Amino acid sequence: MDTREIILIAGGTGLIGRTLVKLWRKKGYSVRILTRGKSDHEKGIFNWDPAKGELDEKALDGVTVIVNLSGAGIGDKRWTKKRRKELFSSRIESTECLWKHARSSETLEHYISASGVVCYGFEDPGRLHPESDPFGNDLLSEITEKWEAAADLFSEKCPVAKIRTGVVLAANGGALKTIAAPVRFGFGTVLGSGKQPVPWIHIYDMAHLYDFVREHRLAGAYNALAGNTDNRTLTKTVARVLKRPLWLPRAPAFILKLALGQMASLVTQGLKADNSLILSKGFEFRYTELEEALRDLYGKV
Fold it and tell me: Does residue 125 lie in a domain region?
């Protein structure tokens, strides 16, 4: 155990962030969290305001790894003009703020940035996208491309890893909670055609993949997914694990577009991604079968 590791997390109160904080503190590392609230150094909490470029400088004392998970939720609100601006700024400004304050650090060894596997676009849903594929031409691809470009500011100082995350399966948050809620109450349904691909990863593997990247000081972009399924299979497997029927007709794409606007692309379109690169580095997934992953999350229902 390397107890000298001091990790600073931006976005440490989110789904992945909370899991990482718990994992790394259990391993004995010093973990600090950036917050827009007041600093509490004894609890490892440090204030920052990315929009103003401000950060409690004590947060960076001795820091060896910075993990940036910041970013407004892609699926939290309709993509109005104001919201689209926020999706960009919450990612770019947070990264630039971190770089502004960390560029003079004498201890920083590694920068790890969250990213999105949606970066390849939805033009070819049948293709298994490796990390070498170009970025797509849609909004999500543009956001991800600029997010990763901002992360690369750190490359002049240390290795930079970009974790292109798929759909994270967790019982207490994220996309799965949204999918499972109507299923539990008997109102679950397949969205759109049901054929749209869904690259997925169990929250346990998501956290341990970050830990693996940190431990080996990896650089570059990595697709973070254990497998690819589709919306129909995912929804039906959730229903089977929860022992609930699916009796409603599927929700047509045009209805979803009316309800969600441009954001409907999150559920009506999809892509497949290749995880060969992270596997070639020696990472091993614990959960590679969808039903096994869901049963672990929901236990005996």
Answer: yes
Categorize the per-residue pLDDT at 219 as very low, low, confident or very high, splitting at 50, 70 and 90. Answer: very high
Q: Indicate yes or no: pTM above 0.85.
A: yes
The predicted model gives 245-250 an average pLDDT of 66
In a domain, 195, yes or no: no
The CA distance from 44 to 30, in Å, is 8
- Cα 35 from chain centroid? 18
Q: For residue 220, list its beta bridge partners.
A: 161
Classify residue 105 as exposed, middle or buried by CB count within 10 Å of its CB (0-12, 13-18, 19+).
Answer: middle
Nearest to 231 by CA among 183, 291, 190: 190
The residues, ordered by sequence, that sit 6+ positions from 109 with a Cβ below 8 Å of its Cβ are 64, 65, 158, 159, 217
Dihedrals phi, psi of 43, to nearest 5 degrees: -95, 5
Domains: count for the chain: 1
